[in-house]
Amino acid sequence: MRDHTKLLAELSEEYRRYAPKSAALHERARAHIVDGMSHARRAVTPFPPRLVRAKGAWVEDEDGHRILDFWQGHYANILGHNADVIVSAVVQALEGSRGLQTGFEDRVHVEAAEILCRQTGAERVRFTTSGALATMYSILLARAYTGRDLVLKVGGGWHGAQPWGLKGVSFNSRSRYDHMETDGFPDIIDRDTIVSRFNDPQHLRDTFAKHGDRIACFILEPFVGAGGFIPATREYLREARALTEHYGSVLIFDEVISGFRFRAGDLGALYGVRPDLAAFGKIVGGGMPVAAVAGRADILNLAGAEGGNRVRFTGGTYSAHPASMVAAKVVMEYLVANEASIYPRLADLGEKTRRAMEQAFAEEGILARTTGDPRGAFGGSSLGMLHFPYDETLELTSPDDVYDPQKCDVALRDRVIQTALLLEDVHVVHGLGAVSTAHTEAEVEFLREACRRVARRIRRYL
Ligand SMILES: Cc1ncc(COP(=O)(O)O)c(C=O)c1O
Fold first, then answer.
1. Average pLDDT in the 256-280 region?
2. Which of 147, 163, 363, 375 is in the most buried spot, having the most CB atoms within 10 Å?
């Protein structure tokens, strides 16, 4: 394993000089906000740029830098930052006195639900405000529906900060993924959550053979997000469907990243696999706090009168918030109307972006590989993650491939490259991120040049 302490210290020092206003605001923030921010993924070494505006593919910070952004609101902004079509609808709603929370129901909520159900094949939907809540409620529904305890997930899968989601997220060489990520929960959560290896159908078969009659649900992302931007193989997803059906477990797809990312609807459809429940978030909210659980009526109805109100998926002061529903409806409508042009273009640009990064590092003799390509499982992809494997023959098919520090230089990807690229006015997360409809080939070339300079700079440290 390489030690990047000296390089990171040099970059941090330079960044402090480069962004003094963000530096000062970070110090101020730390006086009241834990670590100076409210989401760990927004952390940057030595501090994040503080924004004053964001439009399209670019953001602008307090120090006057225009930064090319591939984070795009935690991958929510598929139309780029503050897209006109969404902003104007939300402004209109606010100006028309129908934007802030009222505590009543309205027409837009109905229309957004209709689009989501139609595009995902779901019979029922209920909205909430975060992906974590959507996955948590999905699991509650599954446990109530089956009357079973065990929750099966994949190592490296991130389902948000909720009890069952907080096991087996980060790789650790001792326990791999068999550990809780947080203190504070009762031991029973640890015991009831079992972790299997992504894209390993045999391991899945073995796990079901051992615990199948106790497994309430299997929750997974058909395209692993934070765990490495790795697509499920068709064989694996079909096996997941067959096994859950055979053992009477609920299959939950976490489509918080993948929903409306690859087509105007769920990704499951591109695999020809329909889950029992699916969690949505990010893109479907158009940049507003919207998430949803969608799927089979007989399961979702457990949260309502028809199902005896057995699952308290009922609260949420800001659930189906009026302006949020306007954004959700508008973004989904827009993606549906422009599906045929948007997704092929995004896929093409995603491919060019991944190749540009790999090539820029290769030119300086640095082995870099990207994930994000669907590897034949379905069409193209607008997502990308950059990795620095120690062995060029390494196959990147599971989260531990890209998070095991013995296999890939994880710190180089997650910390060094991020700070080095910020000094070139580019913002990436896990080495890259997502392209939006606001990105063009000019942005890809800007990134390529930035990576070339970074590669030249860091080469002598590796
Ligand atoms: C796949 C997946 N599921 C769930 C979540 C949690 O969503 P939220 O951050 O809105 O709670 C995330 C967030 O990144 C995610 O990527």
1. 98
2. 163
Convert 191-229 to b/e letters by CB count within 10 Å (16 or more is b). ebbbbbbbbbbeebeebbeebbeebbbbbbbbbbbbbbb
Collapsed DSSP state (helix, strand, coil) of residue 20: helix
Q: What is the pLDDT of residue 247?
A: 98
Alpha carbons 144 and 3: distance in angstroms, whole number: 48
What distance in angstroms lies between residue 132's CA and the mean position of ligand 1's atoms? 6
Q: Which domains does the chain have, with CATH numbers?
A: 5-82+339-461 (3.90.1150.10), 84-337 (3.40.640.10)
Determine the average pLDDT of the residues in 76-101. 98
> Rounded to 5 degrees, what are φ and ψ at 430?
50, 45
Sole residue written with tokens 């952004």:
69
Q: How far apart are CA 17 and CA 97, in angstroms?
A: 45
**Position 1 pLDDT exceeds 90:** no
Q: How do residues 378-387 score in pLDDT, each as one tens digit?
A: 999 999 999 9
Give the pLDDT mean for 435-457. Answer: 98
